[in-house]
UniProtKB/TrEMBL annotation:
NCBIfam families: PRK00278.2-4. GO terms for biological process: L-tryptophan biosynthetic process. This is indole-3-glycerol-phosphate synthase. Its EC number is 4.1.1.48. Keywords: Amino-acid biosynthesis, Aromatic amino acid biosynthesis, Decarboxylase, Lyase, Tryptophan biosynthesis.
Length: 399
């Protein structure tokens, strides 16, 4: 995992100083930007929007006691709701063939006609979410070359029937009186590294089903989470009957069709990355192939924005993890649900999902009391050798 940018991020004024003293370099950057911009049109066979931006989001760490204090902080209560994740590196992608193990890199450096390497601050991701999204852009161009969209859409027709992801959660909620469980098949993460070294996606999925999970979330990102779209297929083919969420960083309609083709019943859309126009468009595509959408927010502004969007919301997740800083705080859910937006989702009967950082029965109770009808749990279950037993411990009883 490359976390290089966390330590190397410098102030924007440094960037200006560096480049105003190198007039020729500026023109190199302009040419590189123009070239990458042109490429984007060639790469995208389906609509991919080019939105820019999500605030680097904050949030304090919850103390071990269950007393809920106002720890979410100003960043979580930020009400702009803007997308601040830039969709692509401004100066494009670059393949460093033969330069170490990393074949891929953003154009972190520019080279002058004299062969001098200069720092390219503009082309460094601001946070991990931006790095993931930038890599997706690159990865998608390769995927489309290997397997064009027309082929994937053909595979969608042969995919197993879609299961009702939302209904499975509602059914469990009604049966148990506790939040419906979405258990995550997750090998590794950018924040924790490898979580389960003996990772066997089918074995884990079966144990989750055995333990009573309503639905499963399957991480499909390869580079940062060591997952894969193939895991969806393997789990389906092994006869697991829990509906499956494709846990992917979706920036392109191609990924939605691929998710369905590999057997997913729902997809995740991240509000920090997508504006309302994208959310509407991607929701429509997911629904057109029968899948539900788990829409994810982290701040007040994002929640406000999606609630005012003119698209249907199947399930609304509040991620307690700040995807920019990795900080996890259950108060994010508690505080957002205590606002008038929390009242609105209750009035609109929207199924709320508390995501990340859920380790104990007390944690389950905190998000349930805040108003969540479901929880999404990864690390605390997947790291156990017997995840089915882990579910019983988490809920304080067998499901
Ligand atoms: O898990 C991460 O480190 C991470 C980093 C950057 C973007 C997304 C990330 N995780 C995705 C998730 O939100 C979680 O996998 C999911 O909510 C389960 O969280 P947990 O129970 O804390 O494993």
């Amino acid at each position: 995992m490359s976390l290089f940018f966390l330590s190397s991020f410098k102030k924007p004024q440094n960037f200006i100083l560096l480049h105003t003293s190198h007039a020729t370099h500026l023109s190199i950057l302009v040419v590189m930007f123009a070239a990458s911009h042109q490429n984007q049109h060639v790469f995208n066979t389906v609509r991919t929007t080019s939105k820019t931006t999500s605030t680097i989001r904050g949030g304090g760490r919850r103390p071990p006691t269950m007393k809920i204090k106002a720890a979410g902080g100003a960043a979580v209560m930020d009400d702009t709701g803007e997308v601040t994740i830039r969709r692509r590196p401004p100066a494009g992608h670059k393949e460093h063939l033969g330069m170490g193990s990393e074949r891929f890199a953003f154009k972190m450096e520019a080279v002058t006609p004299e062969g001098e390497r200069i720092d390219n601050e503009e082309n460094k991701p601001r946070n991990i979410l931006e790095e993931i999204v930038w890599y997706k852009d690159y990865e998608l161009t390769l995927m489309k070359e290997k397997m064009p969209l027309s082929l994937v859409r053909g595979q969608v027709k042969l995919a197993p029937p879609v299961l009702d992801f939302k209904q499975a959660i509602i059914d469990q909620m009604e049966k148990t009186g506790q939040p419906g469980l979405i258990a995550e098949v997750k090998k590794a993460s950018p924040s924790k590294g490898v979580i389960q070294p003996n990772f066997d996606p089918v074995k884990i999925a079966k144990a989750y089903e055995e333990g009573g999970a309503a639905c499963l979330s399957v991480l499909t990102d390869e580079k940062f989470f060591q997952g894969g779209f193939e895991n969806l297929k393997l789990i389906k083919e092994a006869g697991v009957t829990c509906p499956l969420l494709c846990k992917e960083f979706i920036v392109d309609a191609y990924q939605i069709y691929l998710a369905r083709a590999r057997g997913a019943d729902a997809i995740l859309l991240i509000t920090a990355v997508l504006d309302n126009q994208d959310l509407k468009y991607f929701t429509k595509i997911a629904h057109s192939v029968g899948m539900k959408v788990l829409l994810e927010v982290h701040t007040y502004g994002e929640m406000k924005r999606v609630l005012s969007g003119d698209f249907e919301i199947d399930l609304l997740g509040i991620n307690n993890r700040d995807l920019g800083t990795f900080k996890v705080d259950l108060n994010v859910t508690v505080e957002l649900m205590a606002t008038e937006l929390g009242k609105e989702v209750k009035e609109r009967n929207i199924v709320m999902v508390g995501e990340s950082g859920i380790f104990t029965i007390d944690d389950v109770n905190v998000v349930q009391n805040a108003g969540c009808g479901a929880i999404l749990v990864g690390e605390s279950l997947v790291k156990q050798d017997t995840p089915d037993v882990g579910i019983k411990k988490l809920f304080g009883r067998p499901l």
